[in-house]
Amino acid sequence: MAFKTKFYLLSVVLLALGLRLYRLDVNPPGLYSDEAAYIYNAFSLLETAKDEYGKFLPLAFQSFGDYKAPLYIYLAVPFVKILGLQPISIRLLSTIMGISSTLLVFYLAGIFYKRKVGLIASLIFAVLPLSLQFNRMGHEGSLSALLVLAGLYFFLNKRKPLYYWFSLILFALSFYAYHDARIFTPLMLLFLVTVKFKQIKNEKAKYFWGLALLLTFLFPLLFNIFNSSFWSRPANTSIFADKGAVAGIEMERGEDSFYDYQPAAFIHNRPLFYFFKFMENYGKHLSSDFLFFKGDSVQIYQTIGSGLMLLATAPFFLAGFVQLFRKNNGSLLILVGFLLSLTASSLTRFVPSASRILMVAPFLAIIVAIGLIWFIEQVKVLNYKRVFIVSVSLSLAFNFSIYLHNYHLHTPLRYAKEWHYGMNQVYREVEKRQSEYETVWLSRDTWGYIYALVYLKYPPSQYQPRAKLTDLNEYGFGWVKSFDKYIFDEFPPDLESREKILFVGQPGDFWGKLNKPLKEIYYPDGKVAFYFADRTSFKLNDE
Question: Which branch of life, at top level (predicted)?
Answer without folding.
Answer: Bacteria
